[in-house]
Design a protein that fits this description.
By secondary structure, the protein is α/β, with parallel strands linked by helices. The protein is built from eleven helices and nine strands.
């Protein structure tokens, strides 16, 4: 009798496990509405990636935020609501950013290691969703620098590269800031727009060192963001859509601590030093360059330089006439349309 009870209980357990297994497989196979968080462990860093959207075709768009020290989820909402309907979007907190954790030394934070982190993320995504998963890479601002480094390390992992207002050439940002400020200040003063502000821009430019100076590039960067607020106030560019509240999903103390530390380590390694211009000809995968025509943070001259030097036979450059540094927040529909078109044509 006892043996019968044991066998009966085992049978129930086996049936239950089988049902759970089937349900689990069904859930895993349904990738049409992914909402996942995974962690990538690489060289003493644990980095979260938040995955949302339609993965039914196993097409994933990996996003690289700005900063250094930005937030992966800062992309969510606005244009990316529409993009998530077309593919699965991977919002990645880079090493030393967002909710990333680690006990690494300064020697373990540099652009080469961070590019390796992105490739490690690809491996984790393949492990979770299958080796038939396909990837596009998008980088905004600093993420454009990191994305370029990643593509140059291994472009075979990606079907396409999307550069959004990010520079492949941080070395020349200082000089381009000066030239761009002089040009825009002259244009806006001629139009009669916010003359006192643009006169203050001219004063700043006339009183900084003509060659790279770390303190001055910080002042120029701050003024660049101020300039875009003035341009929006004068209706030259659209106001940014900042309705999304994903910022509050972060532990702000951790995120702020990361920002302070990662910038103090990475910035001296790239500002006035790093350039990939001479290597852009090595990039042969399809590339889309999306840029705000009035970007004051990373001047539009970098968009054209990137396009001209790319080695890809499939490349496109799109300027957004009503945008500054973040067209995905200021011309959301057009941005989403251009990005989705590129993915559909190259997936």
């Amino acid at each position: 009798m006892m043996q019968k009870i044991i066998f009966s209980k085992l049978k129930i357990v086996l049936i239950t496990l089988t049902i759970l297994s089937v349900l689990s497989c069904s859930q895993d196979d349904d990738l049409s509405n992914i909402s996942d968080t995974i962690f990538v462990r690489h060289k003493n860093a644990d980095m979260p990636a938040y995955i949302y959207g339609n993965g039914s075709e196993k097409v994933f768009l990996i996003t690289l935020h700005g900063g250094p020290g930005g937030l992966g989820l800062s992309f969510r909402g606005s244009a990316f609501d529409k993009i998530e309907n077309a593919c699965a979007v991977v919002y990645f907190d880079q090493r030393g950013s967002g909710m990333a954790q680690g006990s690494y030394s300064e020697d373990e934070i540099n652009i080469d290691i961070m590019a390796e982190d992105v490739l490690a993320l690809v491996k984790v995504l393949k492990h979770k969703y299958g080796n038939d998963s396909r990837f596009f890479l998008l980088g905004h601002s600093w993420g454009g620098t990191l994305g370029t480094a990643t593509i140059l390390k291994d472009q075979n992992e990606f079907l396409g590269w999307i550069q959004v207002d990010g520079t492949h050439n941080p070395k020349d940002v200082y000089v381009q800031y000066i030239e761009n400020f002089e040009r825009v200040a002259s244009e806006q003063i001629d139009l009669g727009n916010s003359i006192p502000f643009w006169e203050s821009v001219n004063d700043l430019v006339s009183n900084i060192e003509p060659t790279f100076n770390r303190a001055d590039i910080t002042r120029l960067n701050d003024k660049a963001f101020d300039s875009e607020e003035i341009l929006a106030g004068d209706n030259i560019i659209n106001q940014q859509d900042s309705s999304d509240d994903t910022f509050f999903e972060y532990n702000l103390l951790t995120a702020y601590w990361n920002i302070i530390n990662i910038q103090s380590i990475i910035d001296p390694d790239i500002q006035g030093i790093l350039s990939y211009t001479e290597r852009l000809s090595e990039i042969e995968i399809p590339t889309l360059i999306l840029w705000g025509e009035h970007d004051m943070v990373v001047p539009p001259s970098f968009a054209q330089e990137s396009y001209d030097n790319l080695g890809s036979n499939v490349k496109d450059l799109v300027f957004f006439e009503r945008s500054g540094h973040a067209p995905f927040l200021s011309e959301t529909n057009l941005f989403a349309e251009e990005l989705i078109l590129f993915i559909n044509q190259n997936k």
